[in-house]
Design goal:
InterPro entries: K_uptake_TrkA (IPR006036), NAD(P)-bd_dom_sf (IPR036291), RCK_C (IPR006037), RCK_C_sf (IPR036721), RCK_N (IPR003148), Trk_Ktr_HKT_K-transport (IPR050721)
Pfam family, one: TrkA_N
Protein name: Trk system potassium uptake protein TrkA
Radius of gyration: 20 Å
Strand content: 25-35%
Order of helices and strands: EHEEHEHEEHEEEEEH
Largest sheet: 11 strands, mixed
Keywords: Ion transport, NAD, Potassium, Potassium transport, Transport
Domain RCK C-terminal: 137-218
Amino acid sequence: MRVAIAGAGAVGRSIAGELLENGHEVLLVDKAPTAISVERVPQAEWLLADACEITSLDEAALQRCNVVIAATGDDKVNLVVSLLAKTEYGVPRVVARVNNPKNEWLFNESWGVDVAVSTPRLMSALVEEAVSVGDLVRLLRFSHGDANLVELTLPPESALAGTRVGDVQWPQDTSLVTIIRGTRVLAPSLEDSLEAGDELLFVAAQAREEQLEDLLSVRREDA
């Protein structure tokens, strides 16, 4: 997979290193000469250019990329890069970094963003996820379809504890994607049973989140 990363700062370089270790082809783009540190990520391609300029993106051959990551420290730049990548080059997947949480509402399909990553939101979500049982925690937002990656730890008193996955009437536009049980990561089948303490990860439409939380947190009659 070919990935272009706009922004060769610490965040961009870190992402590039991870992708390269996983066997992907990576291009780092930055307009600041001081950011071009080939020796730090020698396996990557490097391009000194302004990622907001069409000529630069032509040079980067963005049309060949499977993914574009807008990872600069400037939200305006990240939005422009995302929009150009999606509308001018038809990049299948665009991931954008949100630096200021107040700007998060802009990072959606209208600006070409498929996945918006807000570090402050993600950190707070991970804190909530670590201490909350029975509360739905939003981990990540996907722009397409207005869907989110959400997590809930099944409380012991939940009426669904001991129920087969296939017997649960899940809300519409909701999909259980992973069960984390202790140290195990399970791809749920219809025959798997839910257990108290399971961390359940869903991709769910935002409009269904409250309904999903109510379903999972409902108490047993004898609780």
